[in-house]
Amino acid sequence: MNARSAWLSPDGQTREDTRVTQTGALTPVTDIKGRSGVLPGSENGLYRVTGLWLNGTAGGMTATVGVGRAVIQSTVARGAYPVAVTDPVPLTFADGDSQYGRIDLVVLRIYDHAHDGSGRAEAAVEIVQGTPAATPSAPAAPDVSLVLFTVAVAKNTATGTGGIAWDTARVDLRPTTVPAGGILPTRSDDTAPGGYPGHYRDVGDTLQRWSSTAWVPYPKGIGGIVPAGVLTTGGYPGQYRDSSLGQLQRWNGGTWQPAVPGPAFASSLDAGSTTSTTYTAALLDTSVAALTVTFTAPPSGSVIIGLGARMYTKDSETASAHMSPQVTLGSTVVWAADDERAASCSGAVNTSVSTQLRLNSLIAGSTYTVTAMHRSTSSTVVCWFDTLYLRVDPIA
């Protein structure tokens, strides 16, 4: 029978008919299979999920698995098994090995004689005992079972030696499942993909949407600002986030950039000199190899470049000292240093001079470098530059 229907056949409804047509508490993972898991919920809504919790007995080797509901998905032909644990189930763990520790599983398991030949037709909460080893690992889970917890049993662990240290030995692995279309509450280490684009899940304090390839924080859907620490890669160009330093950033498709760039600023209080009659970035008598500042071109493609210094021409009233910006994009010179764009000074007395220039036609989003360039109008006159600065302000 290729097509099955529940509550329709006049010849009787099989157990498989009932399971494979279940459309209730089952998060889709394919077009016909669902996600195995525990149904979420807690008294007064305080916790994500309390069903089937493992409560260990302090100082001992016993524990109980509490009440709860779950669904365990099997093959397409067998369908999904709904399970309800209505009374706590007691469990007793074997004592620890004398030499090595081990890791046990606590599982919710389905026995179905019609498919597994087990002679049983029931659900059971069981311990699957691991193998002691120097570096123990959890055993494989039985077929058609739901792993609830791992429990580490250290060597020589027994009731007489203090029993299992439940707070550190117990690891909660309970997956969750919800009705189709419901928001799935889950853990941050849950790597399972979504069942369909538009599938939502809640991880910690973040609502996420499955995009068909990745879980994307929900602010994408409403254009909101993503909280700090939530998103490493943007979901789309134009998405905004709050950085860990409190800076508003915008995703440009490849990197996060300041939403409001600039101003960019660099300065030096270390005086330097030159007698070069051609523009040079390097000055003598200073530890600053070159004064530079980088900036990201704004959407307008225009910026204001400001520069200045305290200058003088040693022992000369006729020679001039020039300081001009050079702008580069990578290795390409966009603006070469030029006297027309220079802050200039003549005289043997320190004089503070500055200038501001507008630069247009920049490539928005590209990173440019401004370098302070210097020259003297005479190769025999030493020109001094002190308290130098560069500043770039974006124009909206």
Structural class: mainly beta
> Rough shape?
elongated
Intertermini distance:
68 Å
Query: So how many helices?
Result: 4
Tell me the β content.
35-45%
What composes the largest sheet? 5 strands, antiparallel
Helix proportion: under 10%
Number of domains: 3
Overall radius of gyration: 36 Å
Mean pLDDT: 91
Parts with pLDDT < 50 across at least 5 consecutive residues = none
Count of beta strands: 27
What can you tell me about this protein's structure?
By secondary structure, the protein is mainly beta. The chain folds into three domains: 15-172, no CATH class; 184-258, no CATH class; 264-394, Sandwich (Jelly Rolls). The protein has helices at 15-20, 113-116, 166-169, 219-222, and strands at 37-38, 54-56, 62-65, 68-73, 80-85, 89-92, 102-112, 121-128, 145-153, 170-172, 184-186, 200-203, 206-210, 215-217, 240-242, 248-251, 256-258, 264-268, 272-274, 292-296, 303-313, 321-329, 332-335, 343-345, 351-359, 367-376, 383-394. Strands 18, 19, 21, 25 and 27 form a five-stranded antiparallel beta sheet that branches. Strand 12 (200-203) and strand 13 form a beta hairpin.
